[in-house]
Amino acid sequence: DVLADQIAAGEVVERPASVVKELVENAIDANSTQIDILVEEAGLKSIEVVDNGDGIAAEDVSMAFERHATSKITTREDLFKVHSLGFRGEALPSIASVADVLLETSTGDEAGTQMHIKGGQVIGQSLSAVRKGTDISVKDLFFNTPARLKYMKSPQTELANISDIVNRLALSYPQIAFTLSHEGRELIRTSGRGDLLQVIAGIYGVQNARKMVKFKGEDVDFEIYGYTSLPEFTRASRQYISVLINGRYVKNFQVTKAIIEGYGSKLMVGRYPVAVLNIKMDPLLVDVNVHPAKQEVRISQESQLQDLITKVIYKELSKENL
Ligand code: ADP
Ligand code: MG
Predict the structure, then answer these.
(1) Were 9 and a residue from 13, 85, 163, 290 both cysteine, which residue would form a disulfide, CB within 3.0 to 4.6 Å?
(2) Is residue 86 over pLDDT 70?
(3) Cα(314) to centroid of ligand 2, in Å?
(4) Quick one: which ligand is closest to 135's CA?
C-alpha cells in the first residue's frame, strides 16, 4: 500500500540524512566491514550506500520492500532483546515510496538480484552480478511529495546533517571502515581497524583527539568504556555526545546528562563535551521499543547507571591537571 508507506515515510524519512542513517544501519546489521556512502546534491539527487555485508537472498528481495517485513525479529521475545539497529521493517518501503530506488544485492553464493522501485511501484527485477553485499541507490528523494521537498534546508545544512550521522555511526563502529563522499569529494574516511581514538582523530582532527580522555568503569550491572573531551574541547550542542548500549547507538537524556555532570563545574555555560560512551549491559534491561526513530531507550536501574557514569568521568577528569 503505497499511501501507507508514504505516511510511514513521513516519520522515518524526514530528510536525506534520515535515508543515509537507515541505509547505513541496514548495512551494519548485515555484518558489513566496509560501507561507502556516495552523495550528490546533499542527497536530494542521489544517495548510494555500498556494503560488503550478507546481502539479501533472491527470494527475500521483494519482501524487504514490504511494510513490517523484517528479517531481524521473528518472535515477540526478540522484541525485548533487540540486537540489530533495525527491527521495524519500515525503512526500505518508506524510502522506496518517495524516491527512485535501485537495489543490487547478493549473498555471494548465487546470482544476485537487481530490483528497481520508484514511488512504491516495482519497475523491474532481474538477475545481477554475484559480488557479496548490497548496493542501494536512492535517487530523486521526495520527487512525488513536493510539500516535503519544500521543508529541505540549504544544501550545506542537509549535507552537514549527513556528515553528522556518518560521523556518529563511524564513532559507534570503529571496526567498520566508512567513507562518505559528496560529488566525488571524500569527506570522511575511517580505517575500520577498531581503534576508537583513531576514528575520533579522523573526524575531529589529530589535535582534538589529543584532548580526549579515556575512561572505563563497571559495577555489578553495567560496564562502561569510552572517551570524553577535556573541558577545553567542547561544542555548543549536546549532539557530539554519542551513547551506545551493547553496540547500538541510542538516545537517552539521563545518560547524556550523567556525562555532563561528570564535569562538575568545569564546563562553560552552553558548552558540551565531545564524547563516546559504550555501555555493556543485560539487553533485557533496555527497552528500545519506545519511538519509531528507535533511538530513544528506556533503561532499568537508570539512576544507578547515571551514578556510575558521572563518578567514572569525574574521577578521570580529576586526574588531568585542569
Ligand atoms: P529493518 O531494518 O527494520 O528490518 P528495513 O526496511 O530497513 O527494515 O529493511 C528490510 C529488510 O531488508 C531487513 O530486515 C533486511 O533483511 C533487508 N536488508 C535491507 N538492507 C540490507 C542490506 N544492506 N544488507 C542485507 N540485508 C538488507
Ligand atoms: Mg533498517
Answers:
(1) 13
(2) no
(3) 37
(4) 1
Summarize pLDDT for 263-290 with one digit per residue, the tens: 999 999 999 999 999 999 998 888 876 6
How far is Cα 115 from Cα 125, in angstroms, rounded to an integer?
4
Query: Per-residue pLDDT tens for 4-56?
Result: 777 766 667 889 999 999 999 999 999 999 999 999 999 999 999 999 999 99
Provide CATH 3.30.565.10 ranges for the chain. 2-189
Q: Which residues contact 46 (CB under 8 A, 6 or more apart)?
A: 38, 39, 40, 137, 138, 139, 140
Rounded to an integer, what distance in angstroms lies between the CA atom of residue 185 and that of residue 157?
17
Sign of the four-CA dihedral 50, 56, 59, 64? negative
Q: Are strands 241-245 and 275-280 parallel, antiparallel or unpaired?
A: parallel
Q: Best mutation site among 20, 52, 68, 70 for ligand 1, i.e. most ligand atoms within 8 A of its Cβ?
A: 70
From the CB of 159, is ligand 1 less than 6 Å away?
no
Q: Which residues belong to CATH 3.30.230.10 in the chain?
A: 205-319
Task: Return the closest-CA partner of residue 66 out of 93, 34, 30.
Answer: 93
pLDDT at 292 over 70: no
Residue keyed to cell 513536493? 146
List all residues 6 or more positions away from 277 whose beta carbon is below 8 Å from its beta carbon. 224, 225, 226, 228, 241, 242, 243, 244, 255, 259, 309
Q: Ligand 2: distance of its center to the CA of 87 in Å?
A: 6
CA–CA–CA angle 106, 54, 47 (5° rounding): 75
Give the sign of the dihedral formed by CA 152, CA 22, CA 200, CA 32: negative
Average pLDDT over residues 111-127: 95
CATH topology of domain 205-319: Ribosomal Protein S5; domain 2 (3.30.230)
Is the pLDDT at 88 greater than 90, yes or no? no
Pocket test for ligand 1, best of 12, 29, 35, 291 (most atoms within 8 A of CB): 29
Percentage with pLDDT > 70 across the chain: 89
Class of domain 2-189: alpha beta
